[in-house]
Amino acid sequence: MKDRSFFSAKVKNILLYGGISKEEYDRVKQPVVQANHKALIYWSVLVSFFWIYCLVMSINAKDYAMCRPAYIVALCCCIFSYLASRFVVTRFPDTLKLFKFIFRLSLLGGGIGIAVCQWNLRSLTLFAVAIISPSIFIDSTFSSLAVHFCALVLYIVLGRNTISPDIYSWGLGNYILFSVFGFLIGNAINRERFERYVFAESAKELADIQRRYAYYDQMTGLKNRRAYEEKLSWLAKNAPAEFCIVSADLNGLKKANDTISHQAGDELITGAAECLSAAFEGIDTIYRTGGDEFCVFMDGPIAKAQLCIARLEDLMSQWKGQYNNSLSISTGVASNENHDSIESIIAEADKNMYEYKRNYYINHGIDRRRR
After folding, report:
1. What are the extents of the domains in the chain?
2. Which of 301, 320, 343, 369 is the most exposed place for a label (fewest CB within 10 A)?
3. Contacts for 142-148: CB closer than 8 Å, 24+ residues apart
């Protein structure tokens, strides 16, 4: 039973997802759609020029006059595919599948039209369109099968009453043979393409993870000390006209670690990060610079930062954890007004924060050595 389900899943993946799993297909679906959209634009223009050339040739060479209807229909389909890719697919991305199908069928149909009408180009044309068509887009096996089946029906309809039975049978056999070759080649190419996209997506995700480990604190999700140092360097050269720095320090971390547990201390740290993120402009402006130390960079006047600090006080008053019943953060703020360096702004913010912390411990009657 297990082997049968495995086999059916394998067949389903080959038919619908280019030989990869559905999970992998869903991961790379968006970049594949974008690549197919670009391919539809490119190929519809390129093949349009080919059909225009064929039309001109049919005017100058009488032997090709019979193929003219096939050229005209195929050219119209290419122009339609181009316009659709520019003005419809951009607004309705789900229609891309339909226009891909129309374009590939028009390519096969035009080739079949030439094969039916022009005996000396029959084998070459059938071979070319049957081999090229499956490889134009990054498509599933089922899509290629559907296009080839519709083209086969088109050949049967066009050729049955147009060419002699022996030539018709010979051409039908050739088309089926060439389609099988084209289908197998296209399927192998598309599977390799899908796998390449999966690899690229995995590499991108790995790079994102590495970047987060490099610049983000894993416990809180805030930016870390390394990102903080780079921010300082950036501000030294690109400081906005008006900005302020908020220095924040968690109160009572040592007491929670010593008297309750380190889980309680971790809870205070993550709770402080959550309250800071909610009170200020988001995690990209907040840095965890030490065990219980945080820093916030804000554009704008100091009054804006003071409003955020007031919001932080309100959030702390409502906070309650599993191990701790309360949360307290000392804050100090300073702006770049009347300062000529980033270091002096940070020094003033730290000074104001320590003053806040000193008053907090005095008001709560707490021994600073047990903070």
Report:
1. 2-211, 225-370
2. 369
3. 142/15, 142/16, 143/97, 143/100, 143/101, 144/183, 144/186, 144/187, 144/190, 145/15, 145/183, 146/101, 147/101, 147/104, 147/105, 147/108, 148/108, 148/179, 148/182, 148/183
User: Is residue 10 scored above 70 in pLDDT?
Assistant: yes
Residue type at position 324: N
Dump pLDDT digits (tens) for 145-178.
Answer: 888 888 888 878 877 777 677 777 777 777 788 7
What pLDDT, in 10s, does the model give residues 124-139?
666 667 777 778 888 8
Helix axes 225-238, 342-364, angle to 10 degrees: 130
Instruction: State whether residue 298 is helix, strand or coil.
Output: strand
pLDDT band at 370 (very low <50, low <70, confident <90, very high): very low
The whole-angstrom separation of Cα 350 and Cα 239 is 19
285-312 residues labelled b (16+ CB within 10 A) or e (exposed): bbbbbeebbbbbbbebebebbeebbeeb
Per-residue pLDDT at 126: 67
Give the predicted TM-score (pTM) of the model.
Answer: 0.55
Query: What's the CATH code, domain 225-370?
Result: 3.30.70.270
Q: CB of 135 within 8 A of CB of 189?
A: yes
Say if residues 268 and 252 touch (Cβ distance below 8 Å): yes
Instruction: State the greatest distance between any 2 C-alpha atoms of the chain, in Å, as a whole number.
Output: 107
CB 17 within 8 A of CB 191: no
Q: Where are the alpha helices (DSSP H) in the chain?
A: 2-16, 22-60, 68-87, 96-117, 122-132, 141-159, 165-215, 225-238, 253-259, 262-279, 302-318, 342-364
Q: Could you give the dihedral angle defined by the CA atoms of residues 181, 186, 191 and 193, in that order, rounded to the nearest 10 degrees? A: 150
Among residues 147, 182, 185, 136, the alpha carbon closest in space to that of 35 is found at 136
Is 181:130 a contact under the CB 8 Å cutoff?
Answer: yes
